[in-house]
Amino acid sequence: xxxxxxxxxxxxxxxxxxxxxxxxxSILSFHRLRDKRGASVFRQWRGETRTRLNGETRLLASLxxxxxxxxxFLTPPEGAIGVEPAIEALRETPDHRLHHDIRLLGRQRxxxxxxxxxxxxxxxxxxxxxxxxxSYHKAAIAPYWPHVRAQIEADRAARGRALLDGxxxxxxxxxxxxxxxxxxxxxxxxxxxxxxxxxxRGLLLQPSFFCRSTPVTYYDRELSPVLVYPVQHTEExxxxxxxxxxxxxxxxxLGKLVGHTRSAVLQTIGQxxxxxxxxxxxxxxxxxxxxxxxxxxxxxxVLTLRHGNAVLHTLTPLGAALLRGGAAAVPGVQxxxxxxxxxxx
Length: 345
Description:
- The radius of gyration is 21 Å and the shape is globular.
- The chain contains 14 helices and eleven strands.
- The protein has helices at about 10, 20-35, 40-50, 55-60, 85-90, 95-105, 115-120, 125-140, 145-175, 250-255, 260-270, 275-280, 285-300, 315-325; strands at about 1-5, 15, 180, 185-190, 195, 205-210, 215, 225-230, 275, 300-305, 310-315.
- The protein has a four-stranded mixed sheet. A four-stranded mixed sheet has the order 2-6-8-7. Strands 9-11-10 form a three-stranded antiparallel sheet, sandwiched between helices.
- The model is unreliable at about 245-255 and about 325-345 (pLDDT under 50).
- It starts with a strand and ends in a 21-residue tail after the last helix.
- A hairpin with a 2-residue loop joins strand 3 and strand 4 (about 185-190).
- By secondary structure, the protein is of the alpha/beta class.
């Protein structure tokens, strides 16, 4: 079990990540690529990703075993900004951090020659790792990024609502069932017994699409505390690279979207709302609000997840782009139906 110990100052310093982390998703997806859990959700993703890979799994497996520790330096905080800032941060990893993390890895498994060189601060070995990570992210994560981002943003909306409704206590109590808030300690299912004392540093809650079963945190207790946890999965959660629907070429689908009521529904969902709130704000029955949200969800504009006893609707990146005036607001979008997965650190 993992026990995270909070002080009053830590409760005031809880943050919820605004977007997925590029390298956390990459490393955790590598676990999903090799395991068989959640097969119905990840089956198509695994097949599509494997066809795009070219030897990256063999090299990554040297640093990321199927179970147990993987180096903290693989997931720098800059991953929240994007893959390139994260890779640049990784390039600047101090030699002492490389040596420390690779030494810990060596306690669990024999190391290949290039991993030994990486631990010694060899620039060529670090460059090789960076090339592998960039290539893996391009194959396994980038094609699905809008889909992943939509789910993380939906989870953030649910956690933010809990925070607004009941403060830090309700936020921590709203986390997935493998975590339990027993003030002042957050307990979590974990493969080893461990205590993490925040000591006034606060905690970053990082929802993850590819995390599964148990949350993940840094092994090094001195690093800025982060808890990566799985977002809600359903059978409809499978990552998709289906092309964005062209409504200009599909008059029947376009007809579902026009009209003042549906436009009002889409705008109301913009900040996240339950079905009951949607009905009250738009001035329709709950059944009508549910039906409108269903049509928008089928069109790839809305994502729906359960939040306690209610159902919470949020916009996908495509839905947000439509409200802003066009898909140009979502650079490089090639996919979208919308709306999920851990590892010992």
